[in-house]
């Protein structure tokens, strides 16, 4: 079971949650994804309590978005649940449990936004952040779970494809 | 809602600064966020982007200020919007005092104190004792300071 802790069902939080769920289902259609919207972007304690409840309910993988997730990461670290980060590379907070992070690079949107405003164009333009244009990146650190797994495959400690 | 509000203030200040000051003036941005700029989440990602843009354009061409933990003060964005050209900031919440002001200002502008508003200074972030993940949680002192600002000493 996987748990997603979101703030409010809108914007990038909604899109990330839907994408995460779609990715899980594409990998394992029998997996269960539990989504909880806390109603707050910044309530750290509420995010922590939500994570605690999800783990008690059987979740062994967690993720989430917005400013509050540091509370959930703390609980996941304490309980040994795996965490997928978002917004910035969150592995330094808990390298033992953070598998990877989606890193959002807002400069991809800010640069053209500033240029348009300086040219006198106000609004009416939507800027997409994607893996293709560099607005989204996947961060994996060597000391983290994925990094160690990759090293394990390379040095033969982990056998694959046999 | 906070994220939407933060984005709105960001764009509004960009537009107002350009419209008022013209092309030669520095591009000015006010960043209002419900957490801290080192929250290891959304606010940090936007802060990092603003710093990157400033490094690219230079501080003479791009300036920004930010206000943290603003979810307790819904009136703060309006204060930003009414003082687009110059801001004097002062804060002792983290044990540091920072005073910043825009490099240009209309001669008739009246200086105002904006509680919690800080000019972006990289050294303050890196040297701040509140930069560790643990200290990102609001402390009792933070709560009391916010209460004091909102004149609710009895509740504290």
Question: Could you walk me through the main structural features you see in this protein, from its secondary elements to its overall organization?
Answer:
Chain A is of the alpha/beta class and 162 residues long. Chain A has one domain: Response regulator (Rossmann fold). Helices cover 40% and strands 19% of the residues of chain A. Chain A has a six-stranded mixed beta sheet, with helices on both faces. In chain A, α1 (11-27) links the parallel β1 and β2 (33-37). In chain A, α2 (44-56) packs parallel to α3. Chain A is globular. Chain A starts with a strand and ends in a 7-residue tail after the last helix. Chain B has 156 residues and is of the alpha+beta class. In chain B, 38% of the residues lie in helices and 10% in strands. In chain B, strands 1-2-3 form a three-stranded mixed beta sheet, with helices on both faces. In chain B, β1 (27-32), α2 (42-57) and β2 form a beta-alpha-beta unit. Chain B starts with a helix and ends in a 7-residue tail after the last helix. The interface between A and B is medium-sized, with 34 and 34 residues.
Question: Layout of helices and strands, plus pairs?
Answer:
The complex is a heterodimer of chains A (162) and B (156).
Chain A lengths: L1 E5 L4 H17 L5 E5 L6 H13 L4 E4 L4 H11 L2 E6 L10 E7 L2 H12 L17 E4 L5 H11 L7
Chain B lengths: L1 H20 L5 E6 L9 H16 L4 E6 L8 H7 L34 E3 L2 H6 L12 H10 L7
Parallel strand pairs in B: 1-2
Antiparallel strand pairs in B: 2-3
Question: Mind telling me the C-alpha Rg of chain B?
Answer: 15 Å
Interface with most residues: A-B, 34 and 34 residues
Contiguous runs where pLDDT drops below 50 for at least 5 residues of chain A: none
* Total domain count of chain A: 1
Secondary structure: number of strands of chain B: 3
Main sheet: strand order of chain A: 2-1-3-4-5-6
Mean pLDDT of chain B: 59
**What radius of gyration of chain A results from the CA coordinates?**
18 Å
CATH superfamily of chain A: Response regulator
| Whole-number total of structural domains of chain B | 1
* Strand coverage percent of chain B: 5-15%
Structural class of chain A: alpha/beta
Low-confidence stretches of chain B: 84-115, 121-140, 151-156
Q: What is the share of helical residues of chain B? A: 25-40%
Strand order of the largest sheet of chain B: 1-2-3
Largest sheet of chain A: 6 strands, mixed
User: Biggest sheet of chain B, open or closed, and with what strands and sense?
Assistant: 3 strands, mixed
Q: What is the overall pLDDT average of chain A? A: 91
Number of helices of chain B: 5
Helix content of chain A: 25-40%
Subunit arrangement of the protein: heterodimer
